[in-house]
Write a structure and sequence with these properties.
The complex is a heterodimer. By secondary structure, chain A is mostly helical. Chain A is 73% helix and 0% strand. Chain A is built from 11 helices and no strands. Chain B has one domain: 3-Layer(aba) Sandwich (Rossmann fold), CATH 3.40.50. Chain B has 11 helices and 10 strands. In chain B, the strands form 2 sheets. Chain B has a 6-stranded mixed β-sheet with strand order 6-7-8-3-9-10, with helices on both faces. Chain B has a 4-stranded antiparallel β-sheet with strand order 2-1-4-5, covered by helices on one side. Chain B is of the alpha/beta class. Helix content of chain B is 33%, strand content 25%. Classes of the chains: A mainly alpha, B alpha/beta. The interface between A and B is medium-sized, with 22 and 29 residues.
């Protein structure tokens, strides 16, 4: 034990070691690098997109209804790709919202602590399956299955990848919704029970409305995943840009188009090549907006509860 | 109640006759997991009166009132043995639906807990919504119960605003209005003022005075002055047992037990 020596001043000056100071700068550089890379990607996207729009007018991009940049008769209307993305994403959402929300309610309100501890990690493992596996699952299993029910379903279609994408997103929706539902304070549930509310009414009248913006945020993040999802739709939806909302026929999504051009022999620097940056930019903006909405909703949820 | 076991127990000096009691507990034990928090409580609550439960933290006073409307069992690991008679019926006998018990025995909590996604008006009638009861004359009911809870004049122009826009004291009175709107016979209050400032506390105490007679009120408080101000009867709990139960003025002025005296004079607690 240190003895207090009278008359001697304690030395409060310990020079910060070089390592101590070095760690800070190294960590800062790592953080800065990732920001720099992101900025670099956005800049590339932006520059190539500007290059694209020097050849193709905004008017053609947003008003033409055909997308055929790789054919001799070139059209640059983005809507067929947007329609493909919207259709598959919509199908994914109507699959994942009911599944995910039901799972979230079960996990948070009904499952015992033990079941919850097992099921939640399992659900999250589901989110870790490579999407290429889901893609082949859609093409070789779900499509033939659906063709028995819907005879005129094409081999490549929007329905099957849409549903499979929904299954892929369900864990995200379930997990994030469950976080939101679980974090509704116990005091509100007790308040509802003390008013003679049944469990089901407590859940639907108090818990879910309170968690609503958090739940909505999970839907939108799932949506953002669906819009950006590439492998499943590339494998199972076909490569035919088509302005349709018919889920039975082959279509092409924005992401699948980017894959098609990236993998093909389109020469760099050509206008055909630049289309993927314009499409990529639009995709980026769409998911950015979704993520911002989700972020805003989550913040509102946190403020609403506290 | 079939038997009067008051005479055999030396803690109860309240003189509440069986026919005056709306609630009476008999040999009530409660656990959280293996932790015994109530060690055989036998107590009668007088109809239309205000009863205060006092005692140091951890004495089981909150657990006790939560057993009176079957809220105790909602906590994981909670167990119970014994009887709680409400109007002569054991609320723990098989076949009794806890939801029906809670409709007759309402509760207000320590921290105001209005439903944040509902407006002030919706909060007042939330009990009907939660019970699935269709109700008419909603505006009249909202006004009636907000007046009863002494909140109407402060909020009558803001009924559509979210409940979270109110101050803590107003939120607590809104919770009281909400609890009264389902017309319970008993209102349990679990330290309703512990999160409030003195002015808000005074308003809640005035409200308790105005409700006396129409409702039976059981209030848990760690504020002895509050118990002395609002309650007709006071029970002093310590380590899961009732040490003394008497008319409030006698318990505070002339306690029968040295333990009670030590607590109310601040020698421990």
């Amino acid at each position: 034990m240190a003895k207090l020596v009278p008359g001697r001043q304690a030395d409060l000056h310990l020079p910060r070691s070089l390592i101590e100071r070095g760690v800070g700068s190294v960590l800062f550089m790592c953080a800065a690098l990732s920001v720099a890379v992101t900025i670099g990607i956005i800049l590339t996207l932006l520059l190539e997109t500007i290059g694209f729009f020097q050849h193709v007018s905004f008017k053609e991009f947003f008003l033409d209804t055909e997308w055929t940049p790789l054919f001799s008769n070139r059209h640059f209307g983005i809507w067929p790709l947007v329609a493909g993305t919207a259709l598959t994403s919509f199908l994914a959402m109507i699959t994942s919202i009911p599944l995910g929300l039901t799972a979230a309610i079960y996990l948070s309100e009904y499952a015992s602590e033990r079941i919850r501890k097992v099921l939640k990690p399992v659900l999250e493992v589901l989110a870790g399956i490579p999407t290429v596996v889901y893609g082949y699952f859609a093409l070789t299993f779900v499509t033939p299955l659906l063709q028995r029910v819907i005879p005129d379903l094409a081999g490549f279609n929007a329905l099957s990848p849409g549903i499979v994408m929904g299954i892929m997103i369900t864990p995200i929706v379930a997990s994030l919704s469950e976080d939101a539902i679980y974090s509704v304070p116990l005091s509100l549930r007790e308040g509802a029970f003390a008013l003679g509310g049944s469990k089901l009414r407590t859940i639907f009248r108090v818990v879910i409305p309170t968690a609503f913006s958090g739940i909505a945020a999970s839907f939108i993040l799932g949506m953002s995943r669906a819009v950006g999802e590439t492998m499943i739709v590339t494998i199972a939806a076909g490569q035919q840009p088509r302005l349709t909302l018919d889920p039975r026929v082959p279509i092409e999504t924005m992401t699948a188009y980017i894959v098609q051009v990236s993998l093909g022999d389109t020469p760099h620097g050509t206008i055909e090549y630049r289309t993927i940056f314009a499409v990529g930019m639009l995709l980026f903006l769409m998911t950015l907006i979704f993520n911002l909405i989700a972020h805003f909703l989550k913040k509102r949820f946190i403020r609403g509860v506290l | 109640m079939k038997e009067d076991h008051r005479d055999s127990l030396e803690f109860d000096f309240s003189g509440i006759r069986p026919e005056e009691a709306i609630i009476s507990t008999k040999d009530l034990h409660a656990w959280f997991h293996n932790n015994l928090v109530l060690k055989g409580i036998s107590l009668s609550i007088a109809r239309g009166k205000v009863t205060a439960i006092i005692g140091p933290s951890g004495c089981g006073k909150s657990t006790f009132i939560r057993t009176l409307n079957r809220m105790h069992e909602l906590v994981p690991g909670a167990r119970l043995r014994g009887h709680v008679f409400f109007d002569g019926q054991d609320i723990y006998s098989p076949g009794v639906n806890p939801i029906m018990v809670r409709r007759k025995i309402g509760m207000v909590f320590q921290k105001p807990n209005p439903f944040p996604m509902m407006s002030i008006k919706q909060n007042v009638v939330s009990g009907f919504l939660l019970q699935g009861i269709r109700t008419d004359q909603i505006d009249e009911k909202v006004e009636y119960y907000l007046r009863l809870a002494a909140l109407w004049d402060e909020v009558k122009d803001d009924l559509g605003k979210p409940a979270s826009s109110l101050s803590g004291g107003q939120q607590q009175r809104l919770c009281i209005a909400r609890a009264l709107a389902i017309e319970p016979s008993v209102l349990l209050m679990d330290e309703p003022c512990s999160a409030l400032d003195p002015i808000a506390t005074a308003k809640i105490e005035d409200l308790i005075h105005s409700l006396r007679g129409r409702y039976t009120i059981v209030i848990v408080t760690h504020n002895m002055q509050q118990a002395a101000r609002v309650a007709d009867y006071t029970a002093f709990f310590y380590l899961g047992k009732v040490i003394e139960y008497n008319r409030t003025e006698i318990l505070f002025k002339n306690p029968a037990k040295s333990h009670t005296e030590d607590y109310i004079t601040g020698r421990f607690g």
